[in-house]
Design brief:
- The structure is a single chain.
- This protein is of the alpha/beta class.
- It has two domains: 11-252, Thiolase/Chalcone synthase (Peroxisomal Thiolase, Chain A, domain 1); 261-412, Thiolase/Chalcone synthase (Peroxisomal Thiolase, Chain A, domain 1).
- It has 14 helices and 15 strands.
- The strands form three sheets. It has a ten-stranded mixed sheet, with helices on both faces. The chain has a three-stranded mixed sheet with strand order 2-3-7. Strands 12-13 form a two-stranded antiparallel sheet.
- A hairpin with a 3-residue loop joins strand 14 and strand 15.
- The longest helix has 17 residues, at 74-90.
- It is globular.
């Protein structure tokens, strides 16, 4: 047990569990990114009919029984799968540790919409008689449901909660886990982000009414960040969770280390409900660099948040140009072009897809960048094929969300 405060303690990633529209573990996800395989497909949703979405296809019965599925939620299943996979990947024997010293910190974009929509639709068939309303509704819709379902499934008795931070939530879950480890509140943190968003018709309807829902005859070409012909967001589900530990503890058990979190930052635009403010985004990037003790040119891979909306991509590119200018060593890619926008899971999934570059030196490409929008010009956007680098030492992930919530993570190649 380590309940001392160590504000400078080094924090490392020792396990990764994920489900994405094009992969259900890191190896599969990475291979499909390098191969240019999209996970976007046609999806039938209530009232709107056929839309385009990123849909996960993981084995829900791997860690849950059918009875648990009936009582729980889709996002709960995503969370359980990712957390279990992360723990398995870390090599930690859950039965040999103090489960009161494990914390669960999961970022979410929204929660409860799916169950509420389903229940209202159900009682509409019975003249809105509320006696047909599910008695499971309350536990399904409380904000801490995703993390809570994990603690029930894994018998974790340490702290659990969700972090609501719009599309910055995945990064924020990781930041929270890091902070709790440094405070000595926990010894292991299950930290990341999850989303079930495609199972609510409302998210599609809202983006469509804004003119921000992607459309394309070929689903694989629908998500087009930076491209001149981009026309909106592809909504997706997914999850990405890390096991985080203090480096000293990870070394004691000779753990596999994916990388060390050396910089992070979060701030707020205080500008608009939806439209980002590039000045504040640039400030967030600079703050993360400052915390890591780095210069802009030290970053090797920058995974951009770009969601393929017209103004959102332009604003982020302004922020990136402001910080990085014409840096030759910084290579930029975008994972949403493969899987769409996984909302609360975006930050962790997109960072995960790049972490293997510490070993193989490959920067996965950005799909569907056929004609770069001049307003989205950035030096060294990787498109077409992966880019081979001699060495990757630092990876940055940008995740920005509604109400101007900005988050940035920087992970370093682990070295003693």
């Amino acid at each position: 047990m380590n309940n001392q405060v160590h504000p400078e303690e080094r924090i490392v990633i020792t396990g990764i569990g994920l489900t994405a529209p094009n992969g259900n573990n890191l190896k599969e996800f990475r291979e499909n990114l390098l191969a240019g395989k999209s996970g976007v497909q046609k999806f039938e949703t209530r009232y709107l009919g056929e839309v385009l979405a990123g849909i996960c296809d993981f084995n829900v019965l791997k860690y849950q029984k059918k009875k648990e599925l009936r009582r729980g939620t889709r996002v709960g299943s995503v969370s359980i799968y990712c957390c279990r996979e992360a723990f398995n990947d870390s090599g930690i024997d859950l039965d040999s540790i103090d489960r009161s010293r494990v914390g669960v910190y999961l970022g979410v974009t929204e929660h409860g919409n799916v169950e509420t929509e389903n229940e209202i639709y159900n009682i509409s068939k019975y003249d809105y008689d509320t006696k047909y309303w599910s008695h499971h509704h309350n536990p399904r819709t409380v904000a801490n449901n995703p993390a809570g379902e994990v603690t029930l499934n894994m018998k974790i008795t340490g702290p659990h909660y969700t972090i609501g931070a719009a599309c910055a939530a995945g990064n924020m879950g990781v930041i929270q886990g890091l902070q709790m480890l440094r405070l000595g509140e926990v010894d292991f943190a299950l930290a990341g982000g999850v989303s079930e968003s495609i199972h609510t018709f409302g998210i599609f309807a809202s983006f469509k009414s804004e003119g921000a829902l992607a459309e394309h005859q070929d689903p694989a070409k629908a998500s087009r960040p930076f491209d001149k012909n981009r026309n909106g967001i592809v909504c997706s589900e997914g999850g990405g969770v890390y096991v985080l530990e203090r480096l000293s503890d990870a070394l004691k058990r000779e753990a596999k280390i994916y990388g060390e979190i050396v910089g992070y930052a979060t701030n707020s635009d205080a500008f608009d409900f939806i439209l980002p403010e590039p000045g504040r985004q640039a400030e967030c990037i600079r703050l993360a660099l400052k915390k890591a003790g780095l210069k802009p040119g030290d970053i090797n891979i920058l995974n951009a948040h770009a969601t393929a909306t017209q103004l959102g991509d332009i604003q982020e590119c302004k922020a990136i140009r402001d910080v990085f200018g014409e840096e030759e060593a910084v290579w930029i890619n975008n994972t949403k072009s493969f899987i769409g926008h996984t909302m609360g899971a975006a930050g962790t999934l997109e960072l995960s897809g790049n972490l293997p570059a510490f070993e193989d030196g490959l920067v996965h490409q950005t799909l569907n960048l056929d004609e770069l929008d001049p307003e989205c010009y950035l030096k060294n956007i990787v498109s077409g094929q992966p880019k081979q680098l001699d060495r990757v030492d630092y990876i940055m992930n940008n995740s920005f969300g509604m109400f101007g919530i900005n988050s940035v993570l920087i992970v370093k190649r682990y070295e003693n």
